[in-house]
Amino acid sequence: MQHLSTSLRNSPLFKSSFCRARALHATRRVSQQPWFVDPIPQAFDRRASLPHLANKEIPSIPEDTPPILKLLHSHLAQSPHLDTNFLAICRATAPPPGPPLPFRLPHGRRNRGGTYAGESAYDTSGGLWDWTAIAQVKEGTENRGAIESVVRVIRKVLLTTTPPLPIPPKSRQQMGSGWAMIDAGTFAVHVVSKEVREKYLEGNITL
């Protein structure tokens, strides 16, 4: 056995393997790096951003926007559920008046059916609100809680202002229609899906 081990040690194959192992061990001790780390770092091209994740420009808002709406706009612009291309705040426009009713005097035993009730001192030419804000959730997320999440953000912002705005209590009904509205007194905030915006609000707001 001793003769066999001596002959094995003197063989060229054993000597070359032993020298290679010692050189590898010395290299590891000097470099202090794992064997799987490249000694020279390689430069890789930076991955291009995906089109649907690219930063999109947010439409500007009017300069005379109330401070509370500016604060709300800054919070909504950071929401991951909204398509910021369709985040808009503008002055509310009253709908055009309909055709006048034909004049008709009251008639019958109970004196009903008249179309003229006299002049009123409370008739105003404007709408219900002075300002309107519209926020559209990303397509396909309207039935996955996106509208509810945005409504919670809006309510939190409006209720934590000083003084807090008197908004209606939270509704327990599910928002399955793709449209939620928060009435804040002088302005209204609409959170809608893409389908609702294109069907009902496309021509009523300038983005």
Notes on the structure:
With 207 residues, the protein is an alpha+beta fold. It has five helices and four strands. The protein has a four-stranded mixed beta sheet. The N and C termini lie far apart (92 Å). Pfam families: RsfS.
Task: Provide a quick synopsis of the model.
It contains 5 helices and 4 strands, in the order αααββαββα. By secondary structure, the chain is an alpha+beta fold.
Characteristic key phrases:
207 residues, alpha+beta, Beta Polymerase, domain 2, 2 domains, 4-stranded mixed β-sheet, 4 strands, 10% strand
Number of DSSP helical runs: 5
Q: Strand order of the main beta sheet, please?
A: 1-2-4-3
CATH classification, class level of the largest domain: Alpha Beta
Terminal CA distance = 92 Å
**Low-pLDDT residue spans:** none
Question: Into which percent range does the helicity of residues fall?
Answer: 25-40%
The appropriate CATH architecture of the largest domain is: 2-Layer Sandwich
Strand content: 5-15%
> Rg, please?
36 Å
Please tell me the overall pLDDT: 78
Counted beta strands: 4
Total number of distinct structural domains? 2
State the secondary-structure class. alpha+beta
Largest sheet: 4 strands, mixed
What is the H/E string?
Answer: HHHEEHEEH
- General shape: elongated
The CATH homologous superfamily of the largest domain:
Beta Polymerase, domain 2
Described by its quaternary structure, the protein is single chain
Which fold name corresponds to the CATH topology of the largest domain? Answer: Beta Polymerase, domain 2
